[in-house]
Write a structure and sequence with these properties.
about 35% helix, 4 helices, three-stranded antiparallel β-sheet, 5 strands, alpha+beta, about 90 residues, two-stranded antiparallel sheet
Amino acid sequence: MASLRRLGDGTMGCIWIVSGYAIDDLAAALRERLNVRLPSGSTALLRYYDARITEDIVALLTPAQRAALFAPAQDWLVQRNGHLIRIHQNHAA
């Protein structure tokens, strides 16, 4: 926990996910979200796990895309420079 807190206090940041999924199921669900199909048909890596850009990614997604990305999480929070920001809260999870 101390290492994670230090990350959250720094510029790299830390992502906190609250989920009812078992850890292996959560890991599998998050892995499924790594690759996205671009309008050109090519595939790109979606770096949702990078606390430095998570807010920027979320701002680009439609409500349906956000719901799909965050479906496994009840709460998805980003902590950077000592500030904790709720990115998504899923009341249905």
